[in-house]
Each structure stands twice: as C-alpha cells, then as structure tokens.
Amino acid sequence: MMEQMLLIEEKYRPALVTVRHIAGLKAATSADGLIWLRGSFSSGKDGLLIRALPVTQNYWVDADGRLFPEGKPTPVAVLPTLDWQPLKTFLPVTLPTAALPGGLTETIRIEMAPSGLVREAFALITELSHWKTYAETAPQTRLAPLRFAASDSGKVLIIGQPLPPLPGQHLWEQQNNLLPLGLDFDPPVLAELLTQQTEAAAPSYRLFNRDGRWEQVNFSDFRPARRSAVRLTVNDHG
Amino acid sequence: MKLSKFVQGLFTEGVVNVPRQLLEFHADDLRETAILLQQYQLAERLELAFNAPDFDESAGLWAAQYFYRAIQFVLLRELEEAAIQAYLKAYEEPVTCEAIYSVDLIFRHLAPLFKLSSGLAPSDPLVQMLKETAAAWPYSSVGLDITPSVSTAVIINHPSLKYAYIDRIIQHRDQKRITNNMEKQALEEVLGLYSDLLWPKLQLPNLH
User: Fold this and answer.
1) Which helix (H) or strand (E) holds A183?
2) By CB distance 3.0 to 4.6 Å, which of A25, A159, B31, B119 could disulfide with A39?
3) CB spacing of B49 vs A228 below 8 angstroms
C-alpha cells in the first residue's frame, strides 16, 4: 500500500500549526533540514488545509520505502530512516520546553547582594496568564521585538526591548547571567567565574533567583512572540 | 488555471499562473476558493489582536477574482480596455470591517502586483485603475505610496484592524498615512513611550 509523504522547508515550520489538530499526522526532520510529513491526507476540509501547506516535494512511498514523485511511475529515492513523532510533539510551539524549572548541579556557592547601580531591565518573568492577556491585545509592533520561553508551571520568561508592561520579576543581564534588578553577585567578579566554570552544552542563559540558586534556559527554548504562538502555548497549558 | 489553484499558489508559495483566456470561473471552483479563503483566515486571525472581524465570503471572493483578472490584464496587453472595465469591477457592497479583513487576505499581495505592472506606462488605464483600487482599500495598500480615497474610520474604529493598520504603517514607515488626529492618536497609542526605539526620527506634524 502506498502512503503519501510531504516535504516542507524548515522555514515553513510555523505553517504546520494549521494542521496539527489532524489526527494521525507524523513529522520528522531529515539531515538536510527538510521536514517530512506523513499520514492520511483526506479530501475533506482537513485535506484542503494539507493542500494549503507550502510543500516543496510530494512523494508516494511504497512498502519497500521507495519514493515516487506525485504522478510518476519511477522511484527517485528511498525513504531515509527518520525519528517520526506525532505532529503535536514535533511542533515546538505546541510543547515549549519546560525551561524555567530546570537546573544544573551547582559547583559554586552564589551569594547575592543589593546593588546601588541602576540597570536596564533585559528580561521579565511573569505569569503565562498575564502574558496571554497582553499578547491578545498588544499591537504586533510591540510583540515583534520579544521572544519568550514558557514553563509547564505557568511561568514565562520574556526577553527583548521594550519589555511588556506586566507584573513580574524584571532581570538584568551580564555575560548571559540573568539577575533580579537591584541585586548583583557578591562579589561581582563571580559573574566571570561563573561563565568560566559553567560551560553549557548549548548557548544558554543562567537565570538566578534572589537566593542565588539558578537554572539554565537554552537560547533555543525561546520562541518569537507571535500572537498565534502565545495563543497556542496557552491552549497547550490548559 | 482554476481560481482555487491560483489562490492556493498565492497563499503557499506566492507564485501564481494565469491563462491567456478570460474564462469564466465555475461554481465548484468558486466554492472551493471560498473554502480555501475561509481556512486560510482561520490561521491568519490568530495573528490579529483582539477578535478579528468575521470572514465575509463574498468580499473575499471578489478580491480573489479581481486579483486574478488584474494579473491577466497586466500580462495580456492585447486585451481591450472595455474588457478591463468589464472584468475589473469595483466592490459594490458596503465596505465593512468584515469586507476589509476578507479582501485583505488577497489584497495584501498588492505590492507584487504593482511591481508587475511597473513596466506599463503610468498613464495606462489599467495602472490608473489598480491605483484607484488600492486607494479604495487603504488597509491593504500601506507602503505603496498610495493616498487613500476613502476614510479610514472603519479601520481605526475596530480595535483589531486599527492595530494591524498602524503596525503596517510603522513597518513600512509610511508616515504619509497619518493624516488626521484619529490616526495620529492610534499611532501614539501603539508606540507608547518607545517611539525612539520603534520608529526612530519620527516627527509627526500637528494635525487637526
């Protein structure tokens, strides 16, 4: 039995949001960066949504994994081995990484002390509900400069300028350390020491609490603050 | 090429084909186009602040057909002006929020159409007609150096359209679109205290 297979460029990943509700769809990313989509592409309304996707290539695959271009009798390639995931799992926007509650084993004792220096806020931690309310009613001009990472606990870390006027904890940034406004390391040189001793596997921020505990938030956990992304993130958090 | 295929190509790749003949659209094709527009706007409305206007199917279909024909006339120069007048008819229904929102699904692509027609003489009747149409749909013609021929009150009085319209003005730095206090206030509302950051060197004139 032949199964249909669609290839989509990575840059069109957000377009998959429109079909993520369709049952049975699975997706994977191949080594060349293309997104592969498989499943039952019905002819009803769901079928129209599928057809509206910016598809780069449309294949049929047979039981032996041979790929036939749409309408062609001759295979042109073999289906690579891919890590197939249900579309809901595959789409980062639907399951934002639970960034904030994570953590690393601390090897340095961190002390915080009040600082008299006035610093500009770089990031904001607020409730997802506040963020959702803001994103529902803010102009795109105010959302576009922002990126956000949401946690399963209903918190969201927002970076960018200007930050939204929401209640929460404002943070300033130094060498990828995010510290509560009004506080600094004690002594301040700890910032450099931390940077040297905590080489993360991926580019990341170290997000500090007032008591000196910290957790790692990877740069890749942040999503552009598109209104649809916020709305879908909130939906996924119930 | 069917209208539905044309719209699908416009939505997915921004690439369309049109035939050399002025064939009528079949009812099935129009129905399928309406479904495509409806489905597309479901995703689009997620990007608008507040609640986007409802989808107006007839307005969306008018825009799709107008756009299709306009491209044909730009490409097929042997067609008579009478045919242009017959096929590129202005929108005849009241221009509501719903119509503006639905027409924009297609007319947001006016810029490439204008670029396509840039090879024609500025006095060409088709060019004049396209400019008049763009002027009649200010929400969709931001950044095209077009002076609206209609009031923008319908847009500014709808919270969702207002923000999207001002967003576009900021994005295109189309300061000429700020022509009255209502629009100026909307712009100031969006920029807030961050005018220097979001629109550097903006200097708004005194308006009445």
Assistant:
1) strand A183-185
2) A25
3) no
